[in-house]
Amino acid sequence: MLRKLAVATIAVGLAGGALGLGTAAQAQAVKAGVLTCNVASGFGFIFGSSRAVNCTFAPGGGPPQHYAGAINKFGVDIGEVEAIYDRARSLGNLVASGVSCHIGSQLLDTGPVMEAVDKVLALIERLRAAGHVIRYVDLGGGLGVAYKSADAAPEIRAFIGKLKNKVQGRELAVMVEPGRSIAGAAGVLLTRVLYRKRTPKKEFLIVDAAMNDLIRPALYQGHHEIVPLRKNGRPAILADVVGPVCESGDFLARDREVADAAPGDLFAVSTAGAYGFVLASNYNSRSRPPEILVSGDQWRTIRARETFEDLIRGEQGF
Ligand SMILES: Cc1ncc(COP(=O)(O)O)c(C=O)c1O
Questions:
Q1: How much is the CA Rg of the chain, to the nearest whole Å?
Q2: Most buried of 3, 138, 205, 296, CB within 10 angstroms?
């Protein structure tokens, strides 16, 4: 139930990211009384009554990994925003009440977010001057987490302080949509070494977790520290840590210094709490692992390990 509620909220909040939110989901959101809906392109929304909309736009100008409205499927180019708000006003049943932006993800430096805030605030001034009553500013998510031990995640208190200084006195309610920075460091993926394989050129540690359990390394070269649950004092080895799936993209780490482990040893793949289990799949007919909640010295299963029956449940007509 909690997950369902969260998904409903996120789907609406992330319309900028979701792009093609189906009309059923939009209707559900309206019925649930969500505060605003974000518009990621023109108006694909169906509204039964007057609704507040935010326009999600990409301020652009940031480093290449950030979203840019004109060349990216996300958001609306900043140059188009004012026309869209005018159109919303002309439709009669929409109220353009806020501005929303999300410049990208895994930002270890909040400088680009602050630059975006300046652009958003300037845009809000222009929209207000054109008669739009703008009450909300939504700055999206994107704050990074420390995937590598040398990384330093932005300090949230300092970030909020800077943000407050910029918006103070402007009569704007501020929303943020942090995802990874809340959940990323809270999760680890536990995996067991199945066997070791040595070729004339390389060493492989084959573990029982695979790309279907954590796809970040295969999908976008995501880095996760891989630490042994028990230290054995032996020098580290250089190896690829790979899963058992028949795909050369099935790896958790490549050319990595890891503990000299033997079959049966356990590793924790760190910082797997965001874009981890939610991106897990049943690819290669692999059942997804259980989810365990650890609180202090207590733990409990909050999602059962999938079984073969779970995998074939929806199949029919043979
Ligand atoms: C519109 C929007 N808000 C928030 C987020 C969450 O981002 P993060 O997990 O990097 O904080 C995303 C993710 O892509 C997004 O598209």
A1: 23
A2: 205
Ligand 1: atom nearest CA of 177 is 4
Going from the Cα of 280 to the center of ligand 1, the distance in angstroms, rounded, reads 18
The predicted-structure confidence for 76-106, as pLDDT tens digits, reads as follows 778 888 888 898 888 887 788 888 888 888 9
* Whether residue 141 has its Cβ less than 6 Å from ligand 1: yes
pLDDT tens for 175-233 read: 999 999 999 999 999 999 999 999 999 999 999 999 999 999 999 999 999 999 999 99
Beta bridge partners of residue 302, listed in sequence order: none
Q: Letter for the amino acid at 118?
A: D
pTM, two decimal places = 0.85
Which of 72, 177, 181, 182 for a ligand 1 pocket mutation test, highest count of atoms within 8 Å of Cβ?
A: 177
Active-site residue list: 246
Tell which atom from ligand 1 comes closest to the C-alpha of 142: 10
Atom number, ligand 1, closest to the C-alpha of residue 275 = 9
Residue 138 CB–ligand 1 contact under 6 Å? no
The DSSP line for the chain is: -HHHHHHHHHHHHTHHHH-S--HHHHHHHHHTT-S-EEESSS-----SS-EEEEEEEE---S-TTS--TTTSSSSEEHHHHHHHHHHHHHHSSEEEEEEEE---S-BS--HHHHHHHHHHHHHHHHHHHTT----EEE----B----STT-----HHHHHHHHHHHHTTS--EEE----HHHHGGG--EEEEEEEEEE-SS-EEEEES--TTT--HHHHH-----EEESS---PPPEEEEEE-SSS-TT-EEEEEEEE----TT-EEEE-S-TTTTGGG---GGGPPPPPEEEEETTEEEEEEPPP-HHHHHTT----
